[in-house]
Structure formats: structure tokens, C-alpha cells
# Entry
Amino acid sequence: MKAWHDECAVMGIWGDKEASHLTYLGLYAQQHRGQESAGIVTLNQGLHLAHKGMGLVGDVFSEDSLNHLKGQAGIGHVRYSTTGESFITNIQPLTARLLNGPLAIAHNGNIVNAHVLRRELIREGAIFQGTNDTECVLHLLAKDKNNDLVPCLKSVLPQLEGAFSMLVLAHDQLIAARDPYGFRPLVIGERTMEDGKTSYVVASESCAFDLIGAKLIREVEPGEIISITDQGITSDYFAKSQRLAKCVFEHVYFSRPDSFVFGESVYESRRRMGEVLAEESGVDADMVIPVPDSGVPASIGYSRKSGIPFELGIIRNHYIGRTFIQPTQSIRSFGVKIKLNPQAHLLKGKRVIVVDDSLVRGTTSQKIIRLVRQAGAKEVHFRLASPPTTGPCFYGVDTPKKAQLIASNMSLEEIRKFIDADSLAYLSIEGMLRAVKGEPKEYCAACFDGKYPTDLFGLEDMEVSK
Ligand code: AMP
# Structure
């Protein structure tokens, strides 16, 4: 079971007659966090209506299905997971009918002790439908003796270890809760409707609010449970944070640059990462070019700090979808050019600094450098706006197993040779944490420094044998 590989986004709304359409738009804005499945559950006259499916948000929902999802409250979810666990039963939000009425859950992050909880629950007679860690939470809530949802969550959530930014939709309230480490983002906002009334929204990333004209109020705090009802918002805590572990990779790559994550602009963080990178590993060259789109903000920072001109040396085709028809073997050498086209008239005879956000397996960079050289670049200096990725993530980012991470197997010089760069440099861990602002000790950088902030309950061994 590879249940820790989920990448997801959540979206929730309370008190708006266009709940399903707004949830849809919120998911649409967060599509980058998961492309495999999508689902929305709304609350209509005390009952849940659901629509879920495999695929992109725009493909899963139609005008008809959104119109069918009546009600003034809803939660939604997009999910990516590696093949093998892409069952229909795993598509969130998960729903169940409990003693106190219907309950729907959508969750981002990975609960690292889910397999331990699941084993105990099955031994006690629970019947699971899928392989999803969120299903454990549903069973724990079903078993709990508390009548009201907030006290129930206060007794269930402390049993979970790991990362969870969670939405729960009940017959009378929308709950938003975040694990005490604060691994994954979760923000709350408000939206003024045409009649002047206010509705509340919750999302993984603030870019979802921009699209629907909602205003960001604040983050859901680590360890906090927020309950939204027709009477407004109430806040409670199920745990006091001993150690914060905000995922630094959200700022490096995962979040959209137009989002505010952990209170900071992702765009500004990335630009600063590029500035610090230029300070730490400057090199003389004619131009700085980004790997589009992930390397763009860092390249701007690198260019500003170094004074070397920024150019769009590689142009990306944005319309590559699943429908792309593979060319015949004879013309397959197109390769990465289908997506990325180097501008030979800019690059010819030039010393080029290529900036990207991260190096994972190394295969993309190898192809990009080959392209830039074929376009006539004289020198190619590769710069990464994050440190070497040396370990997998167990908290909700899909990193490959350790054996496939180039930096856990090769030295800097070996990687340089492998990708065929004239020089190669990564951002330091200190430099990255300086760039994201805030207290360095409040971040999780385990994929870079191997310091996992929680017990892993044997997942690390399952990872090795995977
Ligand atoms: P590669 O080194 O070939 O594995 O590709 C690295 C590139 O993939 C990076 O430059 C990122 O833009 C992107 N990337 C990094 N982490 C992830 C992830 N977890 N999921 C998808 N793409 C990623």
C-alpha cells in the first residue's frame, strides 16, 4: 500500500446558494495539486448530494452535475496518487451516514499511522471500502461516543499522527481542522454575496479565493478546529503544537505562485530563493533563463541579484493534455521539444544560466540541457532554487522512492556530469529557509535534510521495499 503518496487540495463553502459552482471553481484553481480525481459533496435539506469521478475537474463536472448538487454548503477535493491505488472508492470527499446524520470528509496530507489505525479498526470489525487513510477518520468518528461533532473531533484527531488539513461537512456545520504541525496549508476566507450577506470559504490555497472573489481572512491554525454554522465561526483547539513543521516544498514547488501559504507570498519566496541562489553560487554568463513555468520566479530573483539579463530562452506549450497523440517511432526524437522549445536565436553562442525549482530524478534537466546546447548555447550553468532532494516525503508530496532520487545516489560532480552542465549548484538549506522567511525551525524540510518531524510507523521500510 502506497497510501502516503497523495497530493491533494480541498475546498469548502458554507452559506451560499451557489455552493456547488463555487466549490467547482475553487477546485479548478487548485487543479495543480491533484489531477487524477475530483469530487464535490453538497448539503441539501440535511442530506448529502455527491458527484465524483476520475479525471480533471473540468472533465468530471458538467453544468448538469453542478445543478444537481443543490444546497448552500459544500466541500470538494482533487487528488493525485500513483497508480495502483486509483480506485473509485478512494475518491474524496468520502461520505457516510452516522448516528447523528450524514458526514462527508475531504483531506489533504498523509496520516502516517493510518495503517496502524486501520489494522486495529479492521480487527474490531470495521469494513473498509478503499485504501485511503481518510477512511480511518470516518471509522473513528463513527465509533466515538460524543454526540456533538466538535467534541467528537477533539477526541479523534489527537489519535492521528502526520499531516492533515481536513474539511468535514455535517448536517449542521462545516468543520475545518489542521494537524498540530501545520504541514499542509489551509486558509479561511469570506465572500460577500449579491444580497450583501457573507458566506465562508475554506481552501488549501488562497488562489482559490481570488477566482471566486473571496477575501482571505487567515490560516486555520495548527491544532485548530473551526466550526462554521449559520450563526458564524467558532474556534477550538484539539491539540497544542509542540513543534511546527510547515512544508517548505509548498513554497519551493507545490503551491501556485499567486497563493499566500503559511502567511507568505509564494511568488516572493521563490523570487528570494533565486536571489539567495545568485549570492551563494554566482557565475559569469550572458543571460539567465527559467525552466518554464516552475523556474520563473527564482530566475527573476537570480537575474535581479546578479544583474545578468533575464530572457525567456525556452518557450512552453501549455496545451499538452492527455489527448496528445504519441508520434510514430521515426519522429519520436521530438521528445521534450513537444513541451519545451528553446529559442535558438537567443541562445546561439551564449553563456546561459538555466534556473529550475528542484532536481528530483534528474531526467528532465538532462533533456533540457541537451535542448539548450542543441540550440547553440556555448556554456550551460544549471542552478537549482532548492537543496538536493535526498529523501521521500511521507506527509503528502509525491516524491519518488529514495533509489530514484538522483541526489541520494550521486555526488554533485556525478550529477553535473549526468545532466551534462558546465557547472551545477543547489541552494543551501539555510539559504532556502532564509528565503521563505519565518522561523527556520517551524518548517519541515525532511525531503532535503532527512529530519522527519514525526515517528514514521515503519513507512520508511515499506518505502524501501516498494
Ligand atoms: P526530474 O528531476 O526529472 O525528476 O524533474 C524535476 C522537476 O519536476 C522539477 O523541476 C519540478 O518542476 C518537478 N517536480 C518536483 N517535484 C515534483 C512533484 N512532487 N510532483 C511533480 N513534479 C515535481
Notes: Residues 286 and 351 are 5 Å apart (CA to CA). The chain has two domains: 6-242, 260-317+334-447. The longest helix spans residues 266-280. The domain at 6-242 is CATH 3.60.20.10 (Glutamine Phosphoribosylpyrophosphate, subunit 1, domain 1).
